[in-house]
Amino acid sequence: MDYFDKWQDYWDKFLFNRYGKEAVQNEDDLFLQVARTENKKRVTHEIFERIIELIKSDLDLKTDDILVDLCCGNGLFTYELKNTVKQIIGVDFSRSIIETASKFKIANNISYHYGSAVDFMKSFGALMPGVIPSKYLMNDALAYFQQKDFKELLFCIKAVSPHFKFLIRGVPNNDLKWNYYNTPERKQFYADLQAKGDLTNYGLGTWWQPEDIKEICEELGLNYVITNQQLPVSNFRMDICISA
Ligand SMILES: C[S@@+](CC[C@H](N)C(=O)[O-])C[C@H]1O[C@@H](n2cnc3c(N)ncnc32)[C@H](O)[C@@H]1O
Q: Whose Cα sits closest to atom 4 in ligand 1?
């Protein structure tokens, strides 16, 4: 699939374009705004809680950690981690979404920033002098990156944090694509998207090849572990834990 480079605009207008809602009014809308849905309804409480537990354990979050939540969305998950770490720095390039976070998901130890993840990490030293994050999270957003941007992001993180753990969750795994398009109707839906040139893949983004991730990490001398997610969370996405 060719790359779609208007993701910022896509996410800014997602709530209105998909649901006809101008702004978030309640907790359910927060889920809709960042596509945390199944059949257009917010994911179950069980799945939400499970993801939060997995983030805490996979990142081995501790009370002295400084965590950067890259592409943090409206803070739905960010906020749930506030009591587990010392400080959280969230960044997202959708103004409407980050403004929602600043309105609904505030805490003394969370700061939300508007901007692209790569640009933010590039200027991190100037923006946050003396702060050296130990952990990084990117939940359900790598699908909106190109390989070159991902590589640049890792390069910047390495420069800011000599030692870090970075959990990238929910990356569509190209090897598991047919678990998702698993009925004749779904296969046809995918074929139709391709035929009409929907480069967003109906919002799902890019299917990543695990080999491409390995190659980038090896080039940068970073350790990585790739794990396929399990149901009930997902049977077509993978998680990547990168460390240095
Ligand atoms: C599916 S939502 C996930 C949000 C949040 N991480 C969560 O799990 O609820 C994807 C988010 O990634 C953000 N995003 C995508 N590419 C980005 C980039 N290059 N820099 C900053 N934010 C980005 C979008 O604005 C959107 O809020």
A: 73
Residue in the structure block whose two tokens are 């010392």: 86
User: What separation in Å is there between the alpha carbon of 111 and the centre of ligand 1?
Assistant: 16
Cβ of 31 less than 6 Å from ligand 1: no
Q: Name residues whose C-beta falls within 8 Å of residue 29's C-beta, 6 or more positions apart in sequence.
A: 15, 21, 23
Answer whether 239's CB lies under 8 Å from 227's CB: yes
- Residue 227 CB coordination number (10 Å): 12
pTM over 0.85: yes
Atom of ligand 1 nearest to the CA of 115: 21
For domain 8-174+210-243, the CATH superfamily is: Vaccinia Virus protein VP39 (3.40.50.150)
Whether ligand 1 lies within 6 angstroms of the CB of 244 is answered as: no
What is the pLDDT, as a whole number, of residue 2? 59
CB of 73 closer than 6 angstroms to any ligand 1 atom:
yes
Candidates 172, 185, 144; CA nearest to 235 is: 172
Ligand 1 neighbour 144 (Cβ under 6 A): yes
Ligand 1: atom nearest CA of 149 is 19
Q: Which of 204, 12, 30 is nearest to 93 (CA)?
A: 12
Per-residue pLDDT reduced to its tens digit, 3-52? 788 999 999 999 999 999 999 999 999 999 999 998 889 999 999 999 99
Structure tokens at 214: 């390995």
DSSP-assigned letter for residue 188: H
